[in-house]
Amino acid sequence: MIGLAIMAIFWFMAPIEPITPVGMKVVGAFLGMVYLWSAVGSLWPSLLGLTLIALSGYGGQGAVGFKAVFLNAFGADTVLLTLFAMVLFGAMDEAGCTKYIARWLLTRKIINGRPYAFMGVVWFTCYVISTLVSPITGLILMWPITLRIMDTLKIERGDKIWPFFFVGMFAVMTLGQPFFPFMGAQLIVVSAYGSMTGVPADLTPVPYVSYMALNFIMTMLLMVTYIIILKFILRPDVNKLKGVDADQLAREQPLPPMVWPQKTMMIMIPLYLIMLLVPSFLDKSNPVVNLLATLGPLGVTIVWIIFFCIIRYQGKEVLNFKEVSYKQFNWGIFFMIAAAVYGANALSNDATGVKDFLLNALNPILGGQSEMGFVAIMFTVALILTNFANNAAMAVVLMPVVLAFCDQMGLNPMPVAMGVTMMVFVAMLTPAASPHAGMMHGRTDIYKTGEILRLGFPICLVTLVYYIFIGYPLAKMLF
After folding, report:
1. Phi, psi dihedrals of residue 312, rounded to the nearest 5°
2. pTM
3. Cα torsion at 98, 103, 106, 112 (round to 10°)?
4. Which single residue of 105, 234, 324, 393 has CA 20 to 30 Å from 412?
5. What residues have CB less than 8 Å from 316, skipping those under 6 apart?
6. Over pLDDT 70: what percentage of the chain?
C-alpha cells in the first residue's frame, strides 16, 4: 500500500519545477518501484512501474507509446544478456563445477598446519564461487563444508574464532558479488550508467578489465587486511585450526572424477572472458576480432549456449536449456533489470527535468565540496542505503546525482560511479540488505545478530575508508 501510495501521490501532484508533468509521473513510478523492490519483491513491481511510465506518455502517446516502452525495456541487449548469462553460468552450477572448484581450492597443502592460510583459502574459494554464480550459491555450498570442518576440528560455537571466521567468509562473498559487470544485479547498475551517459549500443558501458581489476584488487586488499588484524591485533585462539589436513579434507569431500562436459565448462570460463576482452586490445581489421566485436557479450554468450546445447554426453544435451532455466533463471532479476535500466534512462532524460531538480536541490550540500569530499559523501550514502534496501536499486537512484555533480565539478564520472557500484554491494548489517544477508541473519545456529553487527560494522567502515582513499584513486588510474 505504501508503494502504491508513492506512485499515486506523484501521479496527481502538481509538478515541482523544473520537473515536467511527465517527469513527475516517471519519478513516482520509479520511486514506487524502488520501495517495492526492497519491501515486497522484484517481479510485479517492475511490471507495474513500467506500465505507469508507459501510461505517462514518456514513450509517446497512445498505444504506440505504450508498446514502445515495453519493447525498449525488454528489447535492450542488457536484458537479453541477463537471460542467457543466467542459463550459461547456471549450467556450470547444475553440472557440479562449483563443487569441484571448491574441493580443489580447499585441498591445497598450503593450508596444512597454517590456520590463517586455511582461512584465506576458504575465503578466496567463497570469492570465486560468488563471482561465478552468486553469494547465495556460495553460502549453500560452503556452509555444510565449513561446518563439517569445524565439527571435525572440535571448534565449538563459543570459540572466539567462530564468528571471525564465518562473518569474514560472508563479507568476502558479498564483496566479490559484483566482480563480473555483465551478469547479476551489478549489470543493472553498469547498464544504467551506460544508458544515462549515452554509451552507443555497440560499445560496452565500462571497460571490463578495469572494472574487474578494481573489484579484485580491493577485495583481496580488504581480505588481507582482515587477516592481518586477526593475526597481529585481535589474536583469537586458532590452535584448533592447526589440525586442518588437506589430504583428510580430500577424503571427506569425495567427488567422482570429472567427466569431459564438466572439464569443457571449466575451460569455457577463461575462453569466455578472452572472447569478451580481445576486441578491446586487438585491431578490429582482423576478421576474428571483428566477429567477436560484432557478437559482443550477448552474442558470445549465445554462441556458448548453442555449443553446449549441440554437444551430447551419454545421449543427453550437455546444456538442457529448459531444465537449467527452470532451476537457475531468476525472473525477479530479469524484470528488475528491464525496469531499472529503462526507468533510470527516463529519469536522466531532459524531458523529465529530474537532473536539473537534483542539481538545484543538492547543490547546497554537494556543490561546494572538494573532489574527495564529494566522493566520501556519495560512497557513505551508498553504504548506508544499501544496508536497508535493494542494492542495485540504490545505485541506480544515486547514479543521476553522481553524473549531474561530476559534470558540474568537471570530474570523470566513471570512477565515482563504479565506486558507488562496489559500495552498494557491501550489504550485510540487516536482513533487508540483500537476499544472502537475509540468509545469513536467518542462520541463528551459525551467526548471532550481535556478532554480525559487532564485526560487520567495522568491516563496512574499513571498506568505506579503503574505497574512499584507495579505491577511488585506483579507479581514476584504471578508468
Report:
1. -125, 150
2. 0.82
3. 180
4. 393
5. none
6. 99
